[in-house]
Amino acid sequence: MPKKIDLSEKIEQLRLFFRQEGRPPSYAEMADLFGYHSKNAVYGPVKQLIELGFLEKSGNGQILFTGKLTGAVKLCGTVQAGFPSPAEEEYADTINLDQYLVRRPESTYLLTVSGDSMIDAGIQPGDLVLVEKGGAPKKNDIVIAQVDGEWTMKYFGQDSSGIYLDPANTNYPRIRPEQTLTIGGIVRAVVRKYTA
Prior knowledge:
Strands 5-6-10-7-8-9 form a six-stranded antiparallel beta sheet, with no helix packed on it. A two-stranded antiparallel ribbon has the order 1-2. The protein contains five helices and ten strands; from the N terminus they run H-H-H-E-E-H-E-E-H-E-E-E-E-E-E. The longest helix has 14 residues. By secondary structure, it is an alpha+beta fold.
């Protein structure tokens, strides 16, 4: 019986390649990715990844990624959020949430929200926020900031008195740094699960 290979690192390498290149790698590229000296060594892991549903082969033998590897979900059209309209289910495309939400994977991280200072911005305790490091925030960007040694998430602003951070909840005051301010990143998206 063939020896089982630890595939978790290979799956992550393939996901990274897909995010950067937008396509599956060739056998030669996979050999380089996996640190193998020949293309023949790739066939074992590829066979296992096909059996596990991460890869599939086209009719001409080309390796294709499945939604299980790319994280793609079917995009079924649009839904009316105002008045009801006749429902039409239309499988328009597939969408990869990483590609949709993450512009710079190497500079992006997730944080779990605690506290309610941003609820009027639609950000609730337990939500995940997708944060991108680097770049200068603009007025009204939601930022992760360290103010005088304490981390917080607030709207960014600047006036003649300097930088300030505003909450999205009237129960909290505007914050102005007294000594130090470090911007840890700009919030690019909010993710909320409705069921456990």
